[in-house]
Amino acid sequence: MFFGAAGPTPRGIDRVDMGYAARFFADPATPNVGLVPLPGPGSMGVLSASEARSLARVVESHWRNGAIAKASLEEREYPPKEAPSASAKASERKRRSGRAATIGRYLRMVGHARWAGFRHASRRVPPGSLYINTGQVLLGCPAFFKWLEKRPDIRPVFMLHDLIPVHHPEYSGPFLSRHHARAVRTAARHAAALIATSRAAADELREALRGEGRTDLPIHVAPLPVDDDLLIAPGAGAASSEPYFVMVGIIDQRKNHRMILQVWRDMIRRDAAATPKLVIVGGRGLRVAGILDLIARSPGLAERVVVRSGLSTPAMREIVRGARALLMPSFTEGFGLPIIEALTLGVPVIASDIPAHREVGGAHATYLDPLDGLAWRDAILARAGEAPRAAAERMVGLPPYRPQTWASYFDEVAPFLESL
Predict the structure, then answer these.
(1) Beta-carbon neighbour count of residue 146 at 10 Å?
(2) Domains in the chain and their CATH numbers?
(3) What is the Cα Rg of the chain in Å?
(4) Which residues lie below 8 Å from residue 185, measured CB to CB, with a gap of 6+?
(5) What is the mean pLDDT of the chain?
(6) 191-217: per-residue pLDDT in tens?
(7) pTM
């Protein structure tokens, strides 16, 4: 678990970390151990299974307490309904300087996990262990993996979710681009095997590793599972007096929010009364001020677009469940978790026509060019005006959508790990 676990709500990568922790630390008596990064030059500490399990529970409690549980479409975070007060401005300054606070929370979580004391990975990881790292972010910090040079008996398995910052630095900036390039070099230097979340991501990984002289690494493709909270009995969805569409994921340039917002502007200009709502669920990414300004300053958008972040999984689930469709117009993705979440809930999906989306959604989603705004507008208006039964009729003849669960995921991954 990395510092992202100390955020107010989990990212997709954090959910994967937690899924692996639940699998390998369920029995506190197991000989499995957990590794945590600590302050210092590449310090990696060792947790017993009991301590790792305790840390996971602390993190889950933190997420529950930090998340917004209400699935309301009336409470909007942006644009603000009134000028920010002095206290609100102070809160915003605190949020912007939250990196140190996040790291501090993470360290307190480690302390609250009843950690018995410092044990260095190079000395305390059991001989011949399989070392599984699912976080990806830490791979860009090679110092944290130098301990492996002292332990040739360890078989490292790394999960690399995507190489978007390397192949598309225009979306991520130079820092993240260099960071992910270092992650590839770390994997090439130390890995005995890799896990990828899609065939599209695996193909990119093979190409990048070829450039590092590693053509021998086995790469196992295992699609990510849905969260168990999405598999409970259906609810009514978020209350809304009018149809709405939803986008789920960080607000980021590569997610193509700007195109969707331009589509909404066009629909408002043509017939404001008939324009459905758009609900954007996600935190703020890099260089998104222009996207948020577009919502605040464009005539009509502020009334038709709702931005929510920090939601609990049940609250997000109910907002998605009540939508006419999930919109995912990304320019590039390594997987597409919101697609499988929406399909699991029986919600139609309109996604950009890119390899990862085709692989994840199969025949159950509608695919459009991410640059064809008119096609997106027509598809959205068609979904907004149709009867609920029409969506079910479109699925006639298709096999039922069966999402990957954590149980089926490990049924697939465990034999690969055991073979190493």
Answers:
(1) 14
(2) 3-66+109-225+407-419 (no CATH), 228-394 (3.40.50.2000)
(3) 22
(4) 142, 212
(5) 84
(6) 999 999 999 999 999 999 999 999 999
(7) 0.87
